[in-house]
Amino acid sequence: MARAGLTVERIVAAAADLADAAGFDNVTLSALARHFGVKDASLYSHIRNLPDLRTRVALLAGGELIEHIAAAVAGRAGKDALAAFAGAYREYALRHPGRYAATQIRVDQALVAGSPALRRTAEITYGVLRAYGLDEPDLTDAVRLLRSTFHGYCALEAAGGFGAPRDVQASWDKAVDALHVALSHWPREEKQGEAESGR
């Protein structure tokens, strides 16, 4: 592939494709240079270093993931929205394993704040959960529950970690049902004013 037309966008897109094909940990500047038929040094006019590249892949993948989720939850509410959110999350994680792995790395909060896609992630996630009447700090606790459940299930499924004969989709559906019940009967954090009035 010719060097002409090399851009940040093309490099990051190629890195995301490489992540899906070979694993996110195998994304290197040398591998990308070979892909584009250039020397490693040619990439440094576009990408600062490997952490910069991986962060850019994480932001790209995070944007793709939330767009996929947003399309799934549009027009839905309550349990339907939760199930659509969960299904879109799992579908993306299994279809794009390298990109999905990139979304799990820690990204500088200043970059998160400057990313419209990642801000939208918070808006959509909190929007689904507010339908259950949750406010902070319960919202954050619930987000962590969903993320850990979805990520754990997808990681085990991708690794072939479910060996029982029970259908994996049936177990996933049951897990989403259980999350709906948990969110509907959330053990709410008692606010300071309420605690004092009850003394």
UniProtKB/TrEMBL annotation:
SUPFAM superfamilies: Homeodomain-like, Tetracyclin repressor-like, C-terminal domain. Keywords: DNA-binding, Transcription, Transcription regulation. It holds the Pfam family TetR_N. Residues 5-65 form the HTH tetR-type domain. InterPro entries: Homeodomain-like_sf (IPR009057), HTH_TetR (IPR001647), MT1864/Rv1816-like_C (IPR025996), Tet_transcr_reg_TetR-rel_C_sf (IPR036271). Residues 28-47 bind DNA. The keyword DNA-binding applies. It comes from the Bacteria. Gene3D superfamilies: Homeodomain-like, Tetracycline Repressor, domain 2. This is TetR/AcrR family transcriptional regulator. It comes from Streptomyces caeni.
